[in-house]
Amino acid sequence: MQVDINHFLIIVRGGIFNNIKIQVESKRKEYTEGFLKDGISLSDVWTDIPALPHNSKEKVNHPTQKPLKLIDRIVKIGTNEGDLILDNVCGSGTTGLASITLGRKFIGIEKEKEYYDISIKRIGDALTQINSKATQLF
Ligand SMILES: C[S@@+](CC[C@H](N)C(=O)[O-])C[C@H]1O[C@@H](n2cnc3c(N)ncnc32)[C@H](O)[C@@H]1O
Is the Cβ–Cβ distance between 115 and 62 less than 8 Å? Predict the structure, then answer.
């Protein structure tokens, strides 16, 4: 069986479904100052987030790493701040990175040590940045 990992189906039954808006890159007045300036509602099919190119700054050494922007969006839709997110196949830790930068708690499970180490580094770096920003407030 071949699984196309670049397509997701999100099924929400009960629980949380936050309606979020996305910004449209357009200079048209309705988008810059008109009734669409806060963005547009998401449609059922998302075509605005491409797969990560191999030379992306975000790219680490994981073959099926997802774009942070995609996982950020899913986290925002399906959870609220303070919620606990479990990713039991966490790979390079993109879900963890999205979770902690968006104020959620995170538990990740990864069987490959190499990818586990990448996750720890990515999430650790983000936490360091968050904590340094918090310290700068005082
Ligand atoms: C599709 S990748 C996840 C990619 C991730 N979303 C990212 O952005 O990097 C799935 C990961 O699950 C791990 N995995 C597969 N079976 C597992 C298991 N039984 N327990 C823990 N991790 C597992 C694989 O090693 C792989 O890194």
Answer: yes
Summarised one tens digit per residue, pLDDT across range 27-62 is 888 888 888 888 899 888 898 999 999 999 999 999
Q: Is the domain 5-136 a CATH 2.60.40.3500 member?
A: no
107-135 pLDDT, tens digit each: 999 999 999 999 999 999 999 999 888 77
- The candidate with the shortest Cα–Cα distance to 89, out of 105, 74, 75, 109, is 109
Determine if ligand 1 sits within 6 Å of the CB of residue 91. Answer: yes
Distance (angstroms) between ligand 1 centre and the Cα of 41 equals: 31
Cβ 119 under 6 angstroms from ligand 1: no
What ligand 1 atom has the least distance to the C-alpha of 60? 9
Structural domain boundaries of the chain? 5-136
pTM of the predicted model as reported, rounded to 2 decimal places: 0.87
